[in-house]
Amino acid sequence: MLVRETRDTLRLAYPLILAQLAQMSMSFVDTLMVGRLGSFELAGAALGGAIFYPVALVCIGILLAVSPLVSQAYGAGETETAAAAVRQGLWVGSLLMVPAFVIMWNGQVILEAFGQDPDTASRAQAYLRALVWGTLPLFWFAVLRQFVEGLTRPRPIMVITIGGVLLNVLANYVLMYGKLGFPALGLVGCGWATTIVYWSMLAVLILAIRGFSEFHPYRVFARLGKPDARTFREILRVGWPIGVMQGLEVSLFAAAALMIGLFGTTQLAAHQIALNCAAYVFMVPLGLSFAVAVRVGQAVGRGDPEGARRAGMCGIALGGMFMCLSAACFWLVPRFIISLYLNVNEPGNFAVVEQATVFLGIAAFFQVFDGIQVTSAGALRGLKDTRAPMVVALLSYWIVGLGLAILLGFQFGWQGVGVWWGLVVSLVTAAIFLTLRFHRKTGAGP
């Protein structure tokens, strides 16, 4: 049974992992192409991203509640219940568009309130006001993605996301640099390109749902205007703790970057290299966590608690095992990894290379427990258990992790190394408590 569960989980997970890697590549491509415009535009994009990504992560975190509702309904054979979750999820996504729009439209005011340079903040605002029109399709795509994944049909998501990366390159090239008769819009063109990509991805996914026969019985686009207050409230009840949890995590890493920045540019550059490596590898257990949530939810829906427990523990083990492999790479070939970002043989880079090597060694521990915590959170999400994980995140990230980072980094004088060990301990704490929580919720613990 365990071998079969592993096979089924990996079959569902690999398209989702590839989709996450592709989505990560989209922001990487944006950074590379904006960099050709100059340092001022790159700084504007960085500040714009500091507004956009937290907003998007929190809102999409709330919409992740659609996944357990759909997967449990699918496991129980309740077609209309699954469809209702999707319809109301689209309405929740529309509602979330309002605060997202207000925050992004007034990005310059927020950035200047935090002491950012007015000229750079102005560039960021122009970028955000182009990008803001892509938030609604991004939220709707997230909802429909939960529906497709909940029915264990993830390949359309993989294909559409990879296609989105290719379209993003083309749209950036045309709009940013002024090709094919279009004016050169610079950084603003990057925002409009991303908006076009999000609308295009949504349109293709809608066509796929309407076109493939396995989705027809659900009729998710029928009766969209009919309210369903109970399902709407259920999505918000399950989803808001997920959004808060994601906000706590992203804000912890933002705080870590600000603290390390106080120790000088060498440590900050090394931190950025190590964290970017960790973020790319993290896409694998993140994609796996979506599959685990679906597998657990389907087992719950069909009344199979043993199957839910097996699916969750299998996914947690797979997440930890993969991250052990990535940790080995961080330990064994750090210079090769760093060489992907800068010339390791350039004397002026020696200090950054040395510091990044230290951070990658710590990141090896970081990665293993990050893989465990994200998959265990996915397993709990499949049970619709989200409030306790939110509390765990608050305690682990902002009390244990941040507190230890400040203590080790500043009081003990470990500087960036101390901050990184604070991050490690926060993830160890989260991994332990979330895994124990899943054990207890599935009847396997004391």
Mind explaining what this structure looks like?
- The structure is a single chain.
- The two termini are 24 Å apart.
- The protein is mainly α and 446 residues long.
- The chain has 16 helices and no strands.
- It is globular, with a radius of gyration of 22 Å.
- α4 (79-105) runs antiparallel to α7 (135-150).
Keywords:
446 residues, mainly alpha, 16 helices, 83% helix, 0% strand
Summarize the structure.
With 446 residues, the chain is mostly helical.
Secondary structure elements and their pairing?
Elements: H1 2-35, H2 39-63, H3 66-76, H4 79-105, H5 107-113, H6 118-131, H7 135-150, H8 155-177, H9 187-211, H10 229-261, H11 265-301, H12 305-332, H13 334-339, H14 350-382, H15 387-411, H16 416-441
Helix pairs in contact: 1-8, 1-11, 1-12, 2-4, 2-6, 2-7, 2-10, 3-4, 3-7, 3-11, 4-7, 4-10, 5-6, 6-9, 7-9, 8-9, 10-15, 10-16, 11-12, 11-14, 12-14, 14-16, 15-16
Q: Which word captures the global form?
A: globular
Q: Give me the strand/helix succession.
A: HHHHHHHHHHHHHHHH
Total of helices: 16
Give the uncertain stretches in residue-range form: none
Profile the largest sheet: none
Helix share bin: over 70%
Overall radius of gyration: 22 Å
**Content of β-strand:** under 5%
- Quick one: how many beta strands? 0
Sheet/helix structural class = mainly alpha
Name the average pLDDT. Answer: 91
- How widely separated are the two ends? 24 Å
